[in-house]
Amino acid sequence: MTKHKQPSGPVTKPDTDEPKNAKTGGMDDFAAQFERSSRILWLIAAGTTGDRSMADDIVQEATVIALSKLEQFKPGTNFTAWMGQMVRHVAMNTARKEHRRRSVSLDLDSTLEAKPHAGTPDQPADLRLGARGELPADQGHFDDRIMQALHDVSDVARACLLLKTLGGLDYAEISRVMEIPEGTAMSHVHRTRQFLRGKLANLWRDRTSTKRTPS
Amino acid sequence: MTRKDQEKLQRWIDAYLDDRLNEAQKAEFQRFLEKNAAVRSELDLQSEIDNSLKRLFSPPDGQTLDIDQLVARSDEMTKTTRRSKGWLRPRAVVAAASLLIALGGGGWYAWSLLTPPVQEFKPRFPKLTLAQAYQKFAQNNFKADWACEDEKEFACTFDYRLGKGLALAQAPAGVEVLGLSYANTITQNSILLTAKADGKGIIVFVDRVTADRGQTVDPASGLKLHKRKLDHLMLYEVSRLDKPRVLDLLKEMNTPKEWKKDFRPRSFGG
After folding, report:
1. Domain ranges in chain A?
2. Domain range for B23
3. Using one digit for the tens of pLDDT, what is the confidence trace for A149-208?
4. Which residues in chain A have their CB less than 8 angstroms from residue B82's CB?
5. How many other β-carbons are positioned within 10 Å of the β-carbon of residue B122?
6. CA nearest neighbour of B61 among B266, B235, B198, B258
7. Are residue B143 and residue B45 in the same domain, yes or no?
8. What is the ipTM of this complex?
9. How far is it, in rounded angstroms, from Cα B44 to Cα B38?
10. Which end of chain A has less Cβ packing within 10 Å, N or C?
11. B positions 5-64 inside 8 Å of A (CB)
12. Does B92 share its domain with B162?
């Protein structure tokens, strides 16, 4: 059994010029191209679903589909964009199924405003920790609010934001892997940043004012 | 500040965050920031949001691509598609007929037929609840899939699968740590640590906080659940004991890069 190790370290930017067809280049060539793109693909999967726990399986599932359609890959085109299309498709299907599976509405704003500390089966459950569980740290609460706010953002916007913030891609690269115009990619990132800042503004004010106030 | 000014300011903030300002513009904006605490605070908040996103969504290092297995699955999928090709023509007729029905008021039904077939997303192993997994391991005397050779393997196993390393402190008298296993419980990535305390079986399920769905165990089963949050990992200790005996032995750690470099994960699962 051949196992290929993916590179660790900083996110590898996608290649724009693929030398040859992965099919003709064989599986090793496919694996090499996959390795260069894997972290970007993972971010597309995590961004599209908004759930990192599903990303590994989505990328794997998309890889299976890609292998069955290798003859459709055009040499000289962007391998990451080609694979990214399949990752997005699988991720959207997965998210749709997950959404159907959950019968509870994800109206996070109203949930937060109405019951700021009441967990539901579909909410992060840091607030239901038992007596032995550690109380959620300030940081953990902030992360949870980010997660909740991200659910109100479109899948494309979420993916663009992650590709920019964690993938370190510029807007031209995001445009290529997401197959959207560059201006749209930029607009998604800017609007999502503003949206998150708006959602977190009150918490941030409380947090910074608490830090300034001596106890 | 007018709406126009507000939009202009946002454009400056975005350009600053994207590092698209030239040196002169950057200096000008920084002078502006010195005088404007509200905008400074907004940038600090954005920086905190970015840090949070990095904590929540940093891709795992060193995933393996099992190309042989993927090729086999791909071949199987191709065969299935070929077998179903004979259905294409009759299905098109059915779809066209359904479209006619849709025009008569059956839109939803037609839409569902015309939607491209969704490939079934199958988990690699059957999903178990925490109690089911506990019962399964109890039948086998809590035998683990493997025992780590050293702290390096222990930390890397968690880092590889869940994005954060864990360290295990020396177990006190009466507690025996048996090893690690994989099982599709909280998610397919869950790692189970099995142990015994005073002869009674304990399983600590470890997964990401973001995967937490308020898991519980049925009190009627006699099992007790104790939870602990460690950074972005959530630990669930399940046993018949009233108090957790292993949770406090686990500490988060930043796995050294040199450890991760040569790490090869064990391939178990069930």
Report:
1. 22-212
2. 3-57
3. 999 999 999 999 999 999 999 999 999 999 899 999 999 999 999 999 999 988 888 877
4. none
5. 9
6. B258
7. no
8. 0.72
9. 10
10. C
11. 10, 14, 17, 41-42, 44-46, 48-50, 52-64
12. no
